[in-house]
Amino acid sequence: SAAAIEAGRRAYELDRSHVFHSWSAQESLTPMTVIDAEGSWIWDGEGNKLLDLTSQLVFTNAGHKHPKIIEAIKAQAEKLCTVAPQHANDARSEAARLITELLPDDINHVFFTNGGADANEHAVRMARLHTGRRKVFSAYRSYHGGTHLAVNLTGDPRRIASDDDAGVEHFLPAYTYRSYFNAADEAQEAERALNHLRDLVMLEGAGQTAAIILEAIPGTAGIYLPPPGYLQGVRELCDEHGIVLIIDEVMSGFGRAGKWFAHQHYGIEPDIVTFAKGVNSGYVPMGGVAMDDAIYATFAERAYPGGLTYSGHPLAAAAAVAAISAMREEGMVENALTLGEEVIGPRLAALKDRHPSVGDVRGVGMFWAIELVKDKETREPLASYGQTPAVMSELVAEARRRGVLPFMNMNRLHICPPLNTTAEELIFGIDVLDAVLDLADESIRG
Ligand code: PLP
C-alpha cells in the first residue's frame, strides 16, 4: 500500500541518519527496506515482491509470519513476557526438552544464549573448564560469530581485523572442490585433511587441546559438505585425546540441511552442539549450548562461571516450542530433504552444465551453493578471497529486479530458502538465477 511504502521511505531515511550496520563501511550502504513478508516472500521498500532465497540470514526456517509461532509469542507475551534466568519457566523448560529430544541420547541439558556467537563462546568455556586445557582448534573457511572469542574461532576474512591471542589454532578444512591437499577425490580429501588435523594437534600438543569446533556443514564460508568419513575421523581424534568435539549447528541445524541437525547425515555424536537461528526461525533472538552428560557432570557440583540476563527468555522459548512443533506437524524437515534432492539438486546441476561461469554446485536440503569461476578447468574463483566482484552485485541486483533475493558471499550465491518453500517457488527462483547467470558468463568471456 502507499502508506506502507511511505513508512518504508521514512525508515530508510532514519536508518541512514541513525543506524550503524554490521561489518560495513557505513557511508557505502544502501540497505534494502523490507516493508512486509509472508512465507517465503518479502516486499521491498517499493512494494516489489521477492522470493527470499536467503531466509534473511539463514534463519526463517519456518518462513515469515508463521501463524503458529506468532500465536505462541502473543500468548506468552500476555501470560508472562519475561522472567529472570534463575527462575524456572514452562516455555524455557519445554524448549529445552524438545531440543534435547532431537539430539543424541546423552545430550540432555541446554544452556540458552542470545544467539550463535555467545553459544560458541560458552561452549568453548565449558570445554576448557571440563578438560583443564586451553587450546581450541577451528577451521579456516568457517564462521562462528562476531564476539571476541567467536570471531577468533572464525576462519574468514572478518576475523583478521580482530585477530587476538584467544588460544585458537586454525586448520585447513576438508573442501574437496578446492582441495588444499591435492586430493583427487573425496576419499583422498577426507584422509589427507584428517592427517593434517591430526598432525597439527600433535604438533600443538594434544594434551593442551580442549576442543575442536567445526560447523557440521560450513555455511557462510561456502556450504561445502564434508567428504564421507571426515567427521567420523575428527570424532575419533577427539576420543583418542580426550578433546571435546563442538559441532556448530547455528546455521546448519533445525532442518536446514534436511535433517534436524546436519551432523546427523554423518553418523557422529558431538559432545556439544551449539545452535541459534532456526531454533525459533529467528522470530525472537535465541541461541544455546546443548551438552552431553559428561560436560554437564563437570558443572554438577562446581559452579559454571557464566550467565546471561536473557538466558532462555520466555518469548524466545515459546517461539522455539512453536517453531519446532510446527516443523514437525508440517513435515518441513522432510520437505527440505525431498525438494533438495528432487528439485534443487537436479536444476542446479543443469545450470552448471549450461553456464561456463558455474564451477560447482553443491548442497543438501534447503542449503545450497553455486560457486562462480573464471575458468571451469582451473577453478579460478570469479573473485579472489575476501573480495566481491562488481558482477556479483550486478547479478544480485538483476535477480531482485526479476523477483528473487539470493544470498551472496565472495564468488558464491547461496540458496537457503525457508524449509516449507514449495517446488513451484524453487523452480521460479532457480529459473531467475539461471537467467541472471548470463551476466557472470559475459564477464568471463574474452
Ligand atoms: N555460527 C555459525 C555457523 C553461523 O552461521 C553464525 C551466524 O551466521 C554464528 C555462529 C553466529 O551467530 P550470531 O550471529 O547469532 O551470533
From TrEMBL:
Gene Ontology CC, one term: cytosol
Keyword entries, A-Z: Pyridoxal phosphate
Gene Ontology MF: a single term: pyridoxal phosphate binding
Pfam families given in the database record: Aminotran_3
Keyword Thylakoid: no
Required cofactor(s): pyridoxal 5'-phosphate
Keyword Repressor: no
Gene3D superfamilies given in the database record: Aspartate Aminotransferase, domain 1, Type I PLP-dependent aspartate aminotransferase-like (Major domain)
CDD domains reported for this sequence: OAT_like
InterPro entries, per database record: Aminotrans_3 (IPR005814), Aminotrans_3_PPA_site (IPR049704), PyrdxlP-dep_Trfase (IPR015424), PyrdxlP-dep_Trfase_major (IPR015421), PyrdxlP-dep_Trfase_small (IPR015422)
Stated family: Belongs to the class-III pyridoxal-phosphate-dependent aminotransferase family.
NCBIfam families from the UniProt entry: PRK06062.1
PANTHER family for the chain: AMINOTRANSFERASE (PTHR43094), AMINOTRANSFERASE CLASS-III (PTHR43094:SF1)
Protein name: Taurine--2-oxoglutarate transaminase
Organism annotation: Nesterenkonia sandarakina
